[in-house]
Amino acid sequence: MDKHEKVAQIIESSSATFHQAFSGLPEKKRNAVFAIYAYCRTVDDAIDVHHDIERLQTLKKKLKDTFDGKVPQDFIFEALYDAIMAFPTSITPYMELLDAMRDDYYDKPIETEADFDEYCYKAASTVGLMLIPVLASKSYKDNSKKLKAVAIELGKAMQITNILRDVRDDLMNHRVYFPKDIIEKHQIKIETLRTGVVTAEFRSLMEYYIDKAKEKYQVLYENIDLFDKDAVEATYTAAKFYEGILDEIRKNDYNNITKRHYVGKFRKWRLSKKIKKELKDKGLSE
Fold first, then answer.
1. pTM over 0.90
2. How many helices, marked H, and strands, marked E, lie in the chain?
3. Are 132 and 147 in contact (CB under 8 A)?
4. Residue 12 vs residues 80, 89, 220: alpha-carbon distances, Å
5. CB 88 within 8 A of CB 114
6. Domain 1-108 is classified in which CATH homologous superfamily?
7. Domain residues of the chain, as ranges?
8. Which fold has domain 153-286?
9. pLDDT (tens digit, 9 = 90+) per residue, 75-113?
């Protein structure tokens, strides 16, 4: 099994949604996207799974060496090197993701909406910024400012979705990612959430963030024409599949305290048909 097959295996086992959405990309782009995802997954796991700050430091050194052309003997970084050679990019978002995981390790408090926004940027907008040079390679040079803004909003939308999806697991791990001032504004009691009771106040909080995330997804949909033709459907599909998690939470009366929501195969099939129609209506698909 070569390096590209190995990174593909990582995304297949850890994110069926992204694997399904991006598997149809041309080989060069698919390998790059999967390599970037494998890097991000490995960084996340260093803290979320292994709780190991030293492992994070090791990854930081490997990353710097890779961008300097001194590629370590590690299939993830070998595949990542191929990606950044094929689609030149900046090391900055890769480093910022490491910063986000360091903040997680030290339980950096999220006191305000600004803190929350910064966390979402570092944890997920960075991933969007990594992917943009691959998925919008033809227009990136002339539209880099606009594309970066799209990537930032999409990343924040996906991170909010992650947080809403993972409320149950985060509560079990004594984590709360919602900003303290918003929790107080909605009169949420964390002790009540731990009992599994979905209150009117909690529904209000969920709806607030669902609306916020959906507004950010819309930024991508309105600018999807900036992406390479061979990446439009994959990118649009990944966003729509992920946004679907929010609809599942709504449909289940906001009970993400005792249940982790996901988009099932039948729902993805229906979404895929809808996506093709929407892209055709935009003149971006046959």
1. yes
2. 15, 0
3. yes
4. 17, 25, 24
5. no
6. Farnesyl Diphosphate Synthase (1.10.600.10)
7. 1-108, 153-286
8. Farnesyl Diphosphate Synthase (1.10.600)
9. 999 999 999 999 999 999 999 999 999 999 999 999 999
